[in-house]
Design a protein that fits this description.
The chain is mainly alpha-helical. 73% of the residues lie in helices and 0% in strands.
């Protein structure tokens, strides 16, 4: 179940990264990080609504751990790299 939840989280975050890439925003890692973090905060409730009861319970107690890719620019950069995303910086 953790693998499925991680996949859903990644798809959620990568969808926001895709929105950023299509936007007129400057394409630096810092701009992308700020954009994704802001949009995530605005849309997190919608994301949580898509989860099963068990998945919600999993992230409830460890929310920060589940969204570790957004903890710092460095962790976000690793997340992007792991997903083969290279921003024009």
């Amino acid at each position: 179940m953790q693998k499925e939840l991680r996949k859903k989280r990644n798809e959620f975050l990568l969808g926001i990264v895709n929105q950023f890439q299509q936007s007129d925003e400057p394409k630096s890692i810092f701009d992308c990080y700020d954009y994704v973090k802001t949009i995530t905060n605005l849309q997190i409730d919608d994301f949580i609504k898509t989860l099963s009861v068990e998945e919600k319970q999993m992230i409830e107690n460890k929310f920060d751990l589940w969204f570790l890719p957004l903890e710092t620019v460095r962790t976000f950069s690793v997340f992007l790299s792991n997903n083969n995303i290279n921003l024009n910086t």
